[in-house]
Design brief:
By secondary structure, the protein is an alpha+beta fold. It is built from nine helices and 22 strands. It folds into two domains: 3-46 and 158-226 and 332-388, FAD/NAD(P)-binding domain (3-Layer(bba) Sandwich); 88-155 and 227-329, D-Amino Acid Oxidase, Chain A, domain 2. Helix 1 (14-25) packs across helix 9 and helix 2 (63-80) packs across helix 9 (360-373). The longest helix has 18 residues, at 63-80.
């Protein structure tokens, strides 16, 4: 290609499409590269819906990112006419006694409540009896559960969000190259030289938002910090959807003591007599290229048996569809938003550890601010690489 730009974005999924849009909006010359044609089903940002919640149980440092994301998605809706964010409400529920954990964080419900109070996010604290009364599609509740309910939470549509940001970026002058694999990145004089399957690109600075492909591309220290985990999404047929009222929320339901004793899900979509649900696993690793993207019937059957049976009204074990996606996970399940330690002109925005999409539009703004202004209005020091300095090799 032999192209040149102020900035280059590698990987145009959740984070990359957002960064490309914000950089183009700033007036900079910017090129975006992706080995596929986003939005696609090969990475982490597909499956029609992703939960968004503004009070973040993973920690208060995430809250400014998701608040900014909500603002940007509403802005994009006004500009494009697309429906991107559905504020149907979000429910986070756990047993009222004993321990519980989600994304490696204990007391997840209480952390969410504290974050909501700190940032003034409208919310309610419910017990299991009130949850059952207001949302009768949740079954088997003892009444002792504790739940955080956020009316402004809900879900975003990942494919639409990515497509909208790429379209706006292109309209603002960004160049987008799909079907292009990045082979190497190296600082070269006062810029960065990127070799691709279609030629060389030179840029002043580069954003790497390649998700599961980040570690093979950047090597140390990312090869020891990033793990790839295959995750499964399941849509089960409903034989009766009468319990699902118009205000049915998205939910995270911790029904046991460990990170695997939980599932999350969405209300039925209009015209679809099914519910989408999923859980997470962090035990088995894979790679972006070797991951099995086919969901076996026995995997859906096990998901139903362990998590869904007796808990969701009308949900049958009949699978309407299923899909696999990839999480790129750090040792503490937090984000990485930092410059490459050996190549300071390379900003790494990756490893969102399974809870990144709701923050992605805000992270794109952060990336653009860091590159064009040298600082961001949002404090991203908690996502710096140096927090792993003492981690074992």
């Amino acid at each position: 290609m032999g192209e040149r730009a102020d900035f280059l974005v590698i990987g145009l999924g959740a984070m990359g499409s957002a960064a490309l849009y914000q950089l183009a909006k700033s007036g900079a010359s910017v090129i975006g590269l992706d080995r596929f044609a986003p939005p696609h089903t090969m990475g982490s940002s597909h499956g029609e819906t992703r939960i968004t919640r503004q009070a973040i149980g993973e920690g208060r440092d995430y809250v400014p990112l998701v608040l900014e994301s909500h603002r940007i998605w509403r802005e994009l809706e006004a500009e494009t006419g697309e429906d991107l964010l559905e504020a149907c409400g979000a429910l986070v529920m756990a047993p009222g006694t004993g321990t519980n954990s989600h994304h490696g964080k204990p007391d997840f419900v209480q952390n969410s409540i504290r974050a909501a109070r700190e940032f003034g996010i409208p919310h309610e604290v419910l017990d299991g009896r009130e949850v059952a009364r207001r949302f009768p599609h949740f079954l088997g509740l003892t009444g002792s559960e504790v739940a955080y309910y956020e009316p402004g939470g809900g879900y975003v549509r990942p494919e639409r969000c990515i497509a909208a940001q790429l379209a706006r970026a292109a309209a603002l002058g960004a160049t987008i190259r799909t079907g292009t694999e990045v082979l190497s990145i190296a600082e070269d004089g006062d810029g960065v030289r990127v070799e691709t399957s279609a030629g060389t690109v030179h840029a002043g600075e580069v954003v790497v938002s390649a998700g599961a492909w980040t570690a093979p591309l950047l090597a140390a220290p990312f090869d020891r910090l990033l793990g790839v985990k295959r995750q499964l999404l399941h849509w089960y047929a409903l034989d009766d959807d009468s319990a699902y009222r118009a205000d049915a929320p998205v939910y995270i339901w911790m029904h046991g003591t460990t990170d695997t004793d939980y599932f999350y899900g969405f209300p039925p979509q209009a015209g679809e007599a099914s519910v989408k649900v999923a859980t997470e696993q962090y035990a088995a690793g894979t790679t972006a290229d070797a991951a099995d993207r086919t969901v076996r019937p026995e995997e859906s059957a096990e998901m139903y048996r362990r998590h869904i049976a007796g808990r969701l009204a009308g949900a049958t074990p009949r699978v309407v569809r299923a899909a696999a996606c990839l999480y790129t996970v750090t040792p503490d399940r937090g984000f990485i938003i930092d410059r490459h330690p050996a190549q300071p002109r390379v900003l790494v925005v990756s490893a969102c550890s399974g809870h990144g999409f709701k923050h992605s539009a805000g992270i794109g703004l952060v990336a653009a601010e860091l590159l064009t202004e040298g600082r961001s209005r949002i404090d991203v020091r908690p996502f710096a690489l140096d927090r792993f300095a003492s981690a074992p090799a």
